[in-house]
Amino acid sequence: MEYNDRQENEYFNQCREERLSRMLLTDIYENDYKWQLYEDEKTEFVMELSDYIFEDLVEEMIEQMQKGKKIY
Known about the structure:
Elements: H1 2-66
């Protein structure tokens, strides 16, 4: 009797693990697009920030040139 109980327990544990794996995979597939959107937004933000920094540096360089200072 104990052997059957142990087998049954192992079977249920295996079923539980398989079900959990399927649920996790389903969740990954369903939510993958959200991560892609996040990556797109992050890339856009970084590009805008780098453009802003570049423009600021160019303006600063122009001001320095107009004042006749050397730029290193």
